[in-house]
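Appendix C reproduces, verbatim, an entry submitted by the partner laboratory led by Prof. M.T., so that reviewers can inspect both the input and the predicted structure.
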Amino acid sequence: MSLKVERAGPLALVVDGGRQGVRHLGVTQGGAMDWVALGWANWLLGNAPDAPGIEIMVGGLALVAEADVSVALAGADLGATLDGEPLALAETVTLKRGQRLVFERPKSGLRAYLALPGGIEASAIMGSVTSTVREGLGGLDGFGKPLAQGDVLTPKQDRPSGGDRRLPRRDADKGQRDADREQGALVTASDGPMALSLVPGAQIASFSGTSLYRAFNDVWTLDQRADRMGIRLTGPQLEGSMSGMVSEGIPLGAVQVPPDGQPIILMNDRQTIGGYPRLGALTPLACARLAQCLPGTEVRLVPESPERARDDHLRQLARWE
């Protein structure tokens, strides 16, 4: 029931819901950057939303089925093919023994997710199997390494337990544009700047009025300097009364502003503490959308209340129940 890795790019990783409750030990969260897409791939197979799957980015991935096995795809369109024939997103597919499943380069979005029945067999480190390369934790080998040629992916179950689940075709085609869509995170941003909801933080009053106006009204561009640790925005220079502060814990999506005035959004593999003032933090749904945006994408920051952010988050989790 396994899949053998024939070829893997440098960013094909085992991911799940991440390591929770360990940041006081200096260990980062990790996990799927687009947790919504991973959740939908798992939902199609009847898995828990945070069951281990594969996150695939630039460099692609090629797998060969060693036996008949069902898989589900969600997230970005990386031109997935089965024996050379194109595959649709957000669907369950049964691979026959000897067939090749190949992901190439992004056509829309940035990160694709592959789920197997029950998740992927791997030993948990601090409660998670997610690969964190910088910390050397998780993955198939326990040391955080990306997938490599010869690795074997083994599902935890023989077959899917979710029955014949399908997503509405309009959502699989278009992706999510707001928290009320069924599909999940953004795949394309062709209709203008992507709105990213941000819950204002404790230091927001330290920024000048002009800077705050521009922060929430000007368009920002995603810089080339982007990875699983953080994504830099380029745009107006933000100014404030704080040049630094005593380091404190950094949540997912924190938007910190270093002395150059260009915000950095801290993502799953972020450092655990930081000493730059912050505008606040993106909501978890906004982080998932951001994870699918290519460098050069234009975005807007939109303030949102903690209550609304929580309601939207719970609404998404309820879709998988």
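Residues 226 and 232 are 6 Å apart (CA to CA). Additional entries are available on request from the coordinating office.
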